[in-house]
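Interim report to the steering committee. The following record documents the input for Ferredoxin (55 residues).
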Amino acid sequence: MMYVINDSCISCGACEPECPVNAISAGDSIYVVSADCIDCGACANVCPVDAPQPE
């Protein structure tokens, strides 16, 4: 299981530095999660709009 970032992402960048495995990066319009995600939920804990969700 991994997290994905849905369309409610406002590209604030709060999630990227929280990821312990650097699996989050800026995409074209929203942030994206790579396959390196370890399903820890750190990104979801800091997102102001609940964009990261378990896949």
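The domain at 3-54 is CATH 3.30.70.20 (Alpha-Beta Plaits). The committee is asked to note this result when reviewing the revised timeline.
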